[in-house]
Amino acid sequence: MSWNLQHLQGDPLAVHRVVQAAAPDVLCVQEGPRFPGSDRQFQRLAGACGLHHLAGGRVAGSNAIFVSGRVRARDVGAFTFPLGHWRDNRRGAVLATVQPIVGGDPLRIASVHLPLDGRQRLAHVRSLSRQLRDFGLPAVLAGDLNEPPGGASWEALEPLVTDPAPDAPVTYSTASPRRRIDAILAGRGIEVLEYGAWSPDPADARRASDHLPVVAELRVLAS
C-alpha cells in the first residue's frame, strides 16, 4: 500500500480505518508528519494500524515505510536528497529489503515523493534507480510521482520498474479526481496479482487525505 497522507492534516481516525481495512504487509507513506515531534506521530500511526514503523520521517522528507508482523526487513535506509535550490521543499526517500516471514522471496522497495520541478524529479529518479539496482533484487518503487503516466520520470524508471496497470484510476485529488500521480511500479521478477486506487469508504478517503491510496498484491517469482 502506498499513500500520500497530506501531513496528517485530515481525520486521523479515517486514516486508521482505511489502512486497517487494507491490512497491508508493507505501507509506504508520503507526506507524513513533518514538524518537531513527528517521530511520536509516526509511532502512534503505526500502533493504531497494527504496523511497525520501519524507517523514515523528517530525515527522509516525510516519507516512511511501515511493515506488518508478517514481514521481516533488512538493509533499511532513509535519506534526504540534496537541495537543488534554497526555495525547494526538502525531499527524501526510504528504502528497504522486505520478505515474508513464511515463504516468499525478498524484494527491494523504495517509498518516495518526487519534486514538482521536472529536472529535479529526473535527478531523484536516477539516484533512486541506482540504489534499487545495487541490491540485485526485484524492485518496487511506491510513491507520489507528481506527474501522470507518460511523463519523463515514468519513462526514466522503465528500465527498472514499470507501470503494472496503465488503465488504473486517478488518485488525485479526492475532492475532484482528475490526475493519476500516485503509483506502485514493479520490476522484473514480480507478478502483480491485483492493483488499484483503493478505499473501502470514499467518504473516509476524502476525510483522510487529498490523495487516494494505491494498493497492489505482489508476488516475487522464483528465479
Could you please describe the fold and organization of this structure?
The chain is an alpha+beta fold and 223 residues long. The chain has one domain (2-220): 4-Layer Sandwich (Deoxyribonuclease I, Chain A). Helices cover 23% and strands 33% of the residues. It is built from five helices and twelve strands. The protein has helices spanning 12-22, 38-49, 118-133, 152-157, 202-208, and strands at 2-4, 26-30, 52-57, 63-67, 71-80, 92-100, 107-113, 139-144, 161-162, 182-187, 190-197, 214-220. It has a six-stranded mixed β-sheet. It has a four-stranded mixed β-sheet with strand order 1-2-4-3, with helices on one face. Strands 11-12 form a two-stranded antiparallel ribbon. Residues 1-211 form the Endonuclease/exonuclease/phosphatase domain. Keywords: Endonuclease, Hydrolase, Nuclease. GO terms for molecular function: endonuclease activity. This is Endonuclease/exonuclease/phosphatase family protein.
Give keywords:
alpha+beta; 12 strands; 223 residues; Deoxyribonuclease I, Chain A; four-stranded mixed beta sheet; single chain; six-stranded mixed beta sheet; 5 helices; 33% strand
Question: In a nutshell, what does this entry contain?
Answer:
By secondary structure, the protein is an alpha+beta fold.
CATH class: Alpha Beta
| Major β-sheet annotation | 6 strands, mixed
Instruction: Provide the residue-averaged pLDDT.
Output: 94
Number of domains: 1
The oligomeric status of these chains comes to single chain
GO molecular function: endonuclease activity
Pfam families: Exo_endo_phos
Keywords: Endonuclease, Hydrolase, Nuclease
Protein name: Endonuclease/exonuclease/phosphatase family protein
